[in-house]
Amino acid sequence: MELHQLAAFLSASILITLAPGPDILYLLATSIAGGKKSGAALSLGLCSGLVFHTFLVAVGVAALIQSSPLLFQLLKYLGAGYLLYLAWCSWIARNSQLALTTAAVEPPGKLYRRGLIMNMVNPKVFDFLSGLSAPVY
Fold first, then answer.
1. Domain coverage including residue 72
2. Rounded distance between C-alpha atoms, residue 52 and residue 103, angstroms
3. Phi-psi category of 35—alpha, beta or left, where left has phi over 0 and alpha has psi -120 to 50?
4. Sequence-distant (≥ 6) Cβ neighbours of residue 100 within 8 angstroms
5. Residue 9: inside a domain, yes or no?
6. CA distances (Å), 125 to each of 52, 107, 129, in order?
7. CA-to-CA distance for 71 and 121, rounded, in angstroms?
8. pLDDT digits over 51-67, tens only?
9. Is residue 122 situated within a structural domain?
């Protein structure tokens, strides 16, 4: 990878990270409610999801999914469905306590799994990494 490509990749990565999506907003809420340990567990899950996407790009599965409108649309629906599931969990948890405080009582393993799934079904991450695997002419 040439230096200008690396600089473009790092710039795009920083911009995507600074543009808070649902995963980053959830990470902030979890960290505020549950502290450093909860935030670290969720963040580790989100990062593991990135490793999953990187693996898909490396073995060529990402190119297959990206070339199929049906498969890519399915990934989008999975991501939207999971976000709706998280919203539903927050909605039903509000009866006993605020939704923000529910993260404080969740074990780190559950937060890790939640972060992993959130990133595995995130089409924004998939599309970004898939675009990097395209040949540059």
1. 22-132
2. 24
3. left
4. 29, 32, 33
5. no
6. 10, 26, 6
7. 12
8. 888 888 888 887 788 78
9. yes
